Amino acid sequence: MTGRLLVAQLLDKEHKVRVIVRSTDNLSESVLKNPDITVIEASILDLTDEEMAGHVRNCDAVASCLGHVMDFKGMYGAPRQLCTEATRRMCSAIESNRHSAPTKFILMNTVGVKNPELEESRSWYERGLLTLLRYGLPPHKDNETAAEYLFQDVGKENQYVEWCSVRPDSLINADVSAYDIEESPSTGIFTGRPTSRSNVAHFMTELIENAALWNRWQFRAPVIMNAVDPGETTVGR
């Protein structure tokens, strides 16, 4: 759902968008008829390396909003490494094109994944529960390894890929509103403020458009939460 919102917001700002979806059933008629969108109907892991490279060629930014369907099959069935493999394949495709300027890669991740470069404190309760999730819930481990791939394999010196791993708190459905961006969770990861999917899409759009904001958050894993004060949005903090 966040991906659809991101596409809609980008089209509203007159960006040219390519989208890879397993099915077009959930895309609105207005989106499908928009002259600025190219829709590729495919499973991203079924694309060949050549096809993937073609789809990301000449793109200024590539965003992944992939997630597991939260039912038994979605959590425990294949592919268990959906987010990690998609991240790896998209970044490898960007590198293979060897553009003269680096391409932005934005990953939608989760606040449950720690930034390995920061000493983010976790309570004993949070550490215990996250350990259970890591070994008992494949999607959580997938989110961790996707972020690890960016930090460890792509790194900060990559000539072709610049990246940002966006960590929303618990996702809810709501319109765009004020939100806060922080380096690390300011409260416990299970007691933080919720994040609307529309706000996540808005922040990702801002990262694509706003060079100063991108310079602030590239190679980092910002946490996004709905603001306590609905009258102010602090996207650049």
Structure, explained:
The chain has 237 residues and is an alpha/beta fold. The chain has one domain: Rossmann fold, CATH 3.40.50. It is built from nine helices and nine strands. It has a five-stranded mixed β-sheet, with helices on both faces. The longest helix is centred in the middle third of the chain and has 17 residues. The radius of gyration is 17 Å and the shape is globular. The C terminus is likely disordered.
Q: How would you summarize the topology of this molecule?
A:
Layout: H1 2-12, E1 17-21, H2 29-32, E2 37-41, H3 49-56, E3 61-64, H4 72-76, H5 82-97, E4 103-108, H6 124-136, H7 138-154, E5 161-168, E6 171-172, E7 179-182, E8 195-196, H8 197-209, H9 211-217, E9 223-226
Parallel strand pairs: 1-2, 3-4, 4-5, 5-9, 6-8
Antiparallel strand pairs: 7-9
CATH superfamily: NAD(P)-binding Rossmann-like Domain
Strands across the major sheet, in which order? 3-4-5-9-7
Order of helices and strands: HEHEHEHHEHHEEEEHHE
Strand content: 15-25%
Task: Report Rg.
Answer: 17 Å
Structural class: alpha/beta
> Would you identify the regions where 5 or more consecutive residues have pLDDT less than 50?
233-237
CATH architecture: 3-Layer(aba) Sandwich
Number of domains: 1
Mean pLDDT across all residues, rounded? 88
Shape: globular
Helix content: 25-40%
CATH class: Alpha Beta
Number of strands: 9
How far apart are the termini? 26 Å
CATH topology-level fold name: Rossmann fold
Our count of helices gives: 9
Note the main sheet: 5 strands, mixed
